[in-house]
Design brief:
Keywords: Membrane, Transmembrane, Transmembrane helix. There is one protein chain. The chain is an alpha+beta fold. The protein is about 50% helix and about 20% strand. The longest helix is centred in the middle third of the chain and has 43 residues. The N and C termini lie far apart (about 60 Å).
């Protein structure tokens, strides 16, 4: 049994790390914590079978942390995402088009260009303190996994929000032609 656990534990831990690092929403992250729990239990079995108390105690603690992650992401955060989605659907039913968009969905949202193709990803939304309006979106394009990406600011007039995401009237070339923001030095306004 220790030998099987010795294979399951690292495999589950690696898969769970990829699931949570991908940040694909509350449910995927929550399931990542379930897979982490399987890995922790596997490591506990290895620890018991090999007499490694340090491995036993650290993974006993990690199992508790993983249970908190499951509660947070599959319980609380998933309910919040469902609430935002329900408000979007209700606003669409009343006005025939969605009039609400959950701000929590902005980070990581794909920006679709005028031709329907994905042209970038929303990194952050900057809100105005006075007036509570959207100041601008920071959108990345190019690169892989953050390496080689270029950041650009889009004003609220450049974008539209719908139930299925963020849209703009630019194409990939027009977005790439926008001024590039430094990763650690964004403007106070556009």
């Amino acid at each position: 049994m220790t030998e099987i656990a010795g294979w399951v534990a690292p495999a589950a831990t690696m898969i769970a790390a990829m699931m949570t690092a991908a940040n694909l929403g509350a449910r995927v992250t929550g399931w990542g914590f379930i897979v982490f729990t399987v890995g922790s239990i596997g490591w506990i079995m290895v620890a018991i079978g090999t007499g490694q108390n340090n491995l036993l105690w650290s993974n006993g603690f990690l199992t508790l942390v993983n249970l908190i992650g499951i509660w947070r992401w599959l319980g609380r955060q998933a309910r919040y995402e469902d609430g935002g989605a329900a408000a979007t659907r209700r606003s669409a039913a009343v006005a025939r088009v969605p009039t609400l968009f959950p701000i929590g969905r902005l980070g990581g949202a794909t920006v679709t260009g005028k031709d329907g193709a994905a042209i970038g990803t929303v990194i952050e939304a900057m809100m105005q303190c006075a007036g509570t309006g959207l100041a601008y979106l920071v959108v990345s394009e190019g690169g892989v996994g953050g390496l080689g990406e270029r950041l650009h600011a889009l004003s609220p007039q450049d974008v539209r929000f719908s139930e299925d995401g963020v849209h703009c009237d630019l194409d990939a070339a027009a977005l790439a032609a926008r001024p590039v923001l430094e990763a650690d030095n964004w403007p106070a306004s556009l």
